[in-house]
Design brief:
Layout (H helix, E strand, L loop, with lengths): L12 H14 L12 H16 L5 H12 L3 H45 L4 H6 L10 H10 L3 H8 L8 H14 L3 H25 L1 H23 L4 H7 L1 H29 L22
Helix pairs in contact: 3-4, 4-9, 6-7, 7-8, 8-9, 10-12, 11-12
Length: about 300
């Protein structure tokens, strides 16, 4: 006679009984296992990710080492070592640009928030002291202290405005000075400063979107030599060995590298000139002039 099939895995009391037998037979413990991965592994993983994010320029070294192994030459590794400070400088410029844009957005939000609080009936000092620092940095604490305890608010605003991207606070300081000395409307002046900064930011974003095609074309042209090397390797021509181990190849590599660098620099200069940001004067843009005393009303 066939034995009846039993359900698997066991459920109900049979499952608990089986679990208890296994625990007592093996001398186990009913304490649940800790989380996986453990806390120390997660901590080291987060530290490694932060280090890799802050040292992205070091990725040039494994790339150069790989090309050096493929071409059996130390020249790609030397080029990677030379490229590390250049890439670090480029990444630092990008980070600085991002911080500048965040400070500009914080200034626009500050002017709009304070103007709204003033329209709601709050006093200027209370309205300014209640605004969070955001991306304006620790120097904003001096502005809050000046607004809360009756200090020189325009001077504190100008001290914060020296940072790149926060130049719009010069206009806010002028509005504050005019409102205190002449009794003009501070809310209206701050709204005009915010509107001027927003219009300039929108114009810059529109121009940047129009130049995106030119930037993409420049990047594509800069990557064409890499594509040619890959195609030559696929066809069995060994272009790396020719470039790195023959006099004619070394001469072509040197000349091509110089032309490539000159082309990238020239294209970048054309794009910067079209964007209206000449070198060395990028921080002066976005600073609205002090409003006239009669215009802040």
């Amino acid at each position: 006679m066939a034995r009846p099939l039993t359900a698997w895995p066991p459920t109900g009391p049979r499952r608990e009984l089986r679990r208890a037998r296994l625990l007592f037979a093996a001398g186990g413990s009913a304490v649940p296992a800790g989380p996986w991965p453990p806390a120390w592994a997660r901590e080291w993983g987060s530290r490694l990710r932060r280090w890799a994010r802050d040292r992205r320029e070091l990725m040039c070294l494994p790339v150069g080492g790989g090309v050096a192994l493929l071409g059996a030459s130390l020249l790609p590794l030397v080029a990677a070592l030379v490229a590390v400070p250049l890439v670090r400088r480029w990444l630092a410029a990008r980070r600085e640009q991002g911080e500048r844009e965040r400070r500009e957005a914080a200034v626009i939000e500050l002017c709009g928030t304070v103007a709204g609080e003033l329209r709601a009936g709050r006093q200027p000092g209370q309205a300014l002291a209640g605004v969070p620092a955001g991306d304006l940095g620790p120097q904003w604490a001096s502005v809050v202290a000046a607004a809360r305890f009756g200090g020189d608010v325009p001077e504190a605003l100008r001290a914060v405005a020296v940072r790149p991207g926060a130049e719009g606070l010069h206009g806010a300081a002028a509005c504050w000075r005019v409102a205190v000395d002449g009794g003009a409307g501070l809310a209206s002046g701050l709204e005009r400063v915010a509107a001027a900064l927003s219009a300039e930011r929108d114009q810059r974003e529109e121009l940047r979107s129009q130049l995106a095609g030119a930037r993409s074309t420049a990047v594509m042209l800069a990557l064409l030599p890499v594509l040619a090397l890959l195609m030559g390797s696929a066809l069995g021509a060994a272009p790396l060995r020719v470039l790195l181990h023959t006099p004619a190849g070394l001469g072509c590599l040197l000349l091509g590298g110089l032309l490539e660098g000159a082309g990238i620099a020239w294209t970048g200069r054309i794009v910067r000139a079209a964007a209206g940001a000449p070198e060395g004067r990028g921080g002066e843009r976005g600073r609205p002039g002090p409003p006239a005393e009669g215009g802040v009303s």
